[in-house]
Fold this protein.
Amino acid sequence: MANLATANLMHRKTRTAVSVTAVALQVATVMLLIGLANGTLGAIGERLQSVGADVILQPPDASLILGATQAVMPERLMDLIREVPGVRAVTPVLNWHVSQLKGSPESLNLWAIDSGSFATLSGGLDLVAGHGLAAEGDLVVDTLLAASRSLRVGEVLHLLNRDFRVAGISRAGSGGRIYARLEDIQQAVGTPGRASFFLVKGRTARDAAELAGALEGRFAGYKITPIAQVSKALQDNAVGLTQFKRALTALSVVASFLVVLLAMYTAILERTREIGILRAMGATQAWVLRLVMIESAWVCIGGVVAGFGLAVAGRLALLHLFPAEEILLTAQWAARAAALGLVGGLIGSLYPALLAARLDPVRALTFE
């Protein structure tokens, strides 16, 4: 039976190729879109962890994503935070979203920092060229952004309606893509003496939970999150992300269902006489049903395998075009995408399979 199913698929190569491609595109789309969402959120947590802080302190009811660009916290809170038992270092960060760079649209986080307190907490910027934020208008960009946009030390960039100069290039993977002096960005965006959040470092990394508890006791109502929990908190609380995943899952099943339904239905119509001959030779309804389902399964399996390849190729292409983006392809979502393609396809094949199984042999043999 498996050989007959394979022969039927190979006999109609164009339809089989189109069906496999459609399932593959559905699998790859799910993997890439979810990978982009998870990668972006995961990168935020990883970049925060790389700074060396243990806790992030934000305004009340702030979002880890949207609230991070609101410069509403007074810098003077630094002195109060230092008084909390267990605090070793604290630094303010004004996080701002850069939507355009060198005339091209971008989506980058700019971190405006106080160089002294930031160096105490993190050890300072890991520079590979140039120098740090020493003078007014200085910027430091990371190696990934510098390479993707051909930025050089000494180059002038127009941001926030004023000119800045690239003073140095730091190793990528920590904090923001761009660093600037806190006072420069405060002046540029009209928020003097304000920050988006504070990064706090405890005396030891093991005391992060205890430190967060101490800060919550002192700053009741503020959003206080251990850095190690940021990635999970982003996944759990990102507005609309759960709904997006559910909608994408539903659309994936529907797409596979319709593709396989249409392909197998037209195949049954074309093979009516062939099925009539099989029935006349003694093939049972169950046998015909299994034959169609096996053909559908091969289409879905081929689509899943091709989808994995498309997802990997798509990730490489997107990272080449947009190096600053993060796309995380995980085994968990690969398995889910495969299951969605298989389930949707097999459900879609049920009606054509039942239709083929119930064909009357006499009428099928006279079908034109």
Q: What stands out?
A: The first helix runs from residue 2 to 11. Residues 45 and 231 are 5 Å apart (CA to CA). The radius of gyration is 29 Å. The longest strand covers residues 87-101.
